[in-house]
Amino acid sequence: MGYDSFGLPAENAAIDEGVNPEEWTNLNIDIVRNQLKRIGLSYDWTREIHSHDPNYFKWDQWFFLKMFEKDLAYREDSYINWCPQCATVLANEQVQGGHCWRCNSEVEQKFLTQWFLKIRSYAEELLNGLNNVDWPEKVKVMQRNWIGRSEGSIIKFPIVGEERTIDIFTTRADTLYGVTFMVFAPEHPWVREWVKGTEYEKDFEIFYTDVMKQNKFERTDVEVDKKGMFIGKYAINPMTKEKVPIYIGNFIIYEYGAGA
Ligand SMILES: [Zn+2]
Q: Where does the signal sequence lie (predicted)?
């Protein structure tokens, strides 16, 4: 039996109660353990673990350091779901209809420097491993989509009037001739730079605020209406050398691939 008892939720609860987080957490675990015993569960109670126990989390730290040494843990700026009330980051699954699952506050998108694990380095292994597990096909499909394809090409699209390129991963480089427009995630940091001081700025702010109310699952759901807006900027199709207009769209997510 184990308790996922470490972190901000426990800390916030302790602040509300005005007690030491360790005492508060241990007290609650005692209550839960008693309840589990009273409903007759026969776990091996000598093998109980608590994720707030230093004897347990020293191994989390050990794993993290090993990954850091191997360059598999790194820092990068990215948008995250943020609950201002809980003062904590939320996973996509913890955002329900744009609200925090714990306190129902409206969830904000915050641009923060965060730690990432380079799971992409294991994409091939993870994909192959799915062939060896006895999971429902539906779950395997979800996992495959989440891991993403590991073989393909990165195509560099020059941006008109700039040195930098937007580098798009594709498994279908043969369709490049057909590219006639490009769509960026509204939260892509370049977009805000581009519209600043232009006639598109005001409409962009309205569009952006609107999209941020949807969570990432809603935004990519096929059932949800696709919305887009031209932002007055162009990229170059590297095959045809033609100018292609850049739009922003609610169905493009910044953290997925290049965010465009
Ligand atoms: Zn909250």
A: none
Class of domain 153-249: alpha beta
CA distance 70 to 119: 12
| Ligand 1 geometric centre to CA of 55 (Å) | 29
When computed from its CA atoms, the radius of gyration of the chain, rounded to whole angstroms, is: 23
80 Cα–ligand 1 center, Å:
14
Pairing of strands 49-50, 2-3: parallel
- Provide the token pair at 224: 């949800």
- Encode pLDDT of 107-124 as tens digits: 887 888 888 888 778 888
Q: Tell how far the Cα of 117 is from the centroid of ligand 1, in angstroms.
A: 25
Cα of 105 to ligand 1 centre, how many Å?
Answer: 5
CA–CA separation, 16 vs 10, rounded Å? 10
Instruction: Break the chain into its structural domains and give their ranges.
Output: 1-52, 71-117, 120-151, 153-249
Per the CB < 8 A criterion, the answer to whether 31 and 23 are in contact is no
Q: Residue 92 Cα, ligand 1 centroid: separation in angstroms? A: 13
Quickly state the pLDDT bin for 20 (edges 50, 70, 90). very high
89 CA to middle of ligand 1, Å? Answer: 9
**Spacing, Cα 83 to ligand 1 middle (Å):** 5
Residues in contact with 211: Cβ distance below 8 Å, sequence separation at least 6, in sequence order:
186, 187, 219, 227, 250
- Å from CA of 163 to ligand 1 middle: 41
pLDDT in tens, 144-194: 877 776 678 889 999 999 999 998 888 888 899 999 999 999 988 899 899
